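## Example pair
The file below holds two records. Each record gives the amino-acid sequence first, followed by its structure token line.
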Amino acid sequence: MWKDIHKEGDIGSEGGIVLLDEEYKDQCRITLERCRTYYAITCGVYGSMVHTVFCDEKEYQLTYERMKLDLQNFMDTDTTWDEELEFYDAFSEKY
């Protein structure tokens, strides 16, 4: 289950205001920020991968939800190291 770790008024890694900040199984995290002219979504699998995507007003909500679901499915699947690397590459290309 995702848990909210956001604190009111936090500034994110891209310098925007944090709107959503969630963690899954103490293994990964996804953060949505509203910046001046765009939205930033930063996610990471602890110890393995960090990735940031920039979106406009029209696409940020759907992109956030899709990234979150992909991360959750990945974390819920037993994988080999090679499969993890394949996921990170495919995830980065997709987003």
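Second record, same layout:
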Amino acid sequence: MDAKTTAIVSYIGWIGWLIALLAGEKEDEFAKFHLNQNLIIYLIALIPAVGTIFALVLWIMGLINVFQNEMKPLPLIGEWKILK
């Protein structure tokens, strides 16, 4: 998978994120950036009610960034790094 495809697949739920992590272009900065942002979004979504709504908004913003080939940090979570 190329970097953009890896980033897009990572936005297709936990299963898509795992596929992107295992089979994707994780050495590419663009793919790694979106894998990290998505992991944080999925973790925030585990928080009941407010976390889920906030995660949905971030998920949409992140997916738009992928389609526009941007590495724009998302509000409030953009600087958090889990994956190195």
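Notes on the second record: The chain has a mean pLDDT of 87. Residues 50-67 form the longest helix (18 residues).
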